[in-house]
Design goal:
Blueprint lengths: L1 E4 L4 E7 L13 E7 L1 H11 L4 E7 L1 H13 L3 E6 L5 E7 L5 E4 L8 H14 L5 E5 L10 H11 L3 E5 L2 H8 L5 E2 L3 H8 L3 E3 H14 L3 E5 L5 E5 L2 E7 L10 H11 L4 H16 L17 E4 L7 E6 L1
Helix pairs in contact: 1-8, 4-5, 6-7, 8-9
Organism: Streptomyces minutiscleroticus
Family: Belongs to the carbohydrate kinase PfkB family.
Pfam family, one: PfkB
Length: 315
């Protein structure tokens, strides 16, 4: 069982639009409503892969009730933490060329009692979990050290933990030595405080995160592929993608792919890339099933292409 923790979940509405023209009436060609938040998406991807998952998340108001209903409909066990404020609603506008415009609401502020209830709910459901995946931004009311506390509690319970967050929350959590961290290129550059222009730059930054406490670093480099750096070695992987429809949740799908394949080594990296490549070819934040995966399109190598220039360098 993979337990996910989403401190700031959302109700996500994705509209497919022919183009985004500021100040004009834009008619959507398609619409989806999905439960959102990085940890929620990891649970959705794990469930789509046929594995058991439990989603821990604070939920409030009518949007929170709908999030729970949508997750139950997808076969996901929900461990809700009732909160006073309403769960946030986000909007994504997807254009045919793959451009995505997102409007993310801040979400409710959690009280001291709600913060403690969230931690206690994680503790109650951690028994028997093979992984805990803690993902996304922290809502108002949670200090940057909250993830660090959660990592420490997970390790005290003997459970491996994967972390997908950024900024001060990521840096604070590294001191508790999370087993896996999954930054994208922008988050990796922010963590080390310098730009990334090549795969080699990303590799060096990943090594720095390991020196600060991360066990394994899965770095998502967008269209350029993914990099896995851990104590036993480093691997680079990319995949053929015929068309990009929406990249919402693609990184979360990659993390799920890594964890369901064990969370370490080249086989897990191949699974991560296959899941991410499949996700970007699906509408909205639809998570791929095994039938959507194309393992033959994935290339994994231990010969990391350090000199390869990133398609979208991070300044």
């Amino acid at each position: 069982m993979i337990l996910t923790v989403t401190p700031n979940p959302s109700l996500d509405r994705t509209y497919e639009v022919p183009s985004l023209d500021r100040g004009e009436v834009v008619r959507a060609a398609g619409e989806r409503v999905d439960p959102g938040g990085k940890g929620v998406n990891v649970s959705r991807a794990v469930a789509a892969a046929g594995r058991r998952t439990v989603a821990v998340l604070p939920l409030g108001g009518a949007p929170g009730r709908l999030v729970a209903e949508l997750l139950h409909a997808q076969g996901i066990e929900v461990a809700p933490v009732p909160v006073e404020g309403a769960t946030r609603s986000n909007i994504a506008l997807a254009e045919p060329d793959g451009t995505l415009t997102k409007i993310n609401a801040p979400g409710p502020e959690l009280s001291a009692a709600e913060r403690e209830s969230l931690l206690e709910t994680v503790r109650e459901h951690a028994r028997g979990a093979s992984w805990i995946a803690c993902c996304g931004s922290l809502p108002r009311g949670l200090a940057p050290s909250w993830y660090a506390d959660l990592v420490a509690r997970a390790h005290a319970a003997g459970v491996r933990i994967a972390l997908d967050t950024s900024g001060p929350a990521l840096l604070a959590a590294l001191r508790e030595r999370p087993d896996v961290v999954k930054p994208n290129a922008e988050e990796l550059a922010e963590a080390v405080g310098r730009p990334l222009a090549t795969v080699g730059d990303a590799f060096k930054a990943a090594e720095e995160l390991r020196a600060l406490g991360a066990g394994t670093v899965l770095a998502s480099l967008g269209a350029d592929g993914q990099l896995l750096v851990e104590a036993s070695g480093a691997w680079f992987a990319d995949a053929r993608v015929d068309s990009v429809r929406s990249n919402v949740g693609a990184g979360d799908s990659s993390l799920a792919g890594l964890l369901v394949a064990g969370g370490t080594g080249p086989r897990a990296l191949a699974s991560a890339v296959a899941h991410g490549a499949a996700a970007v070819q699906l509408p909205g934040s639809v998570m791929p099933t095994p039938a959507d995966l194309d393992p033959a399109a994935v290339t994994v190598t231990a010969d990391v292409p350090h000199d390869r220039v990133l398609t979208e360098p991070v300044s």
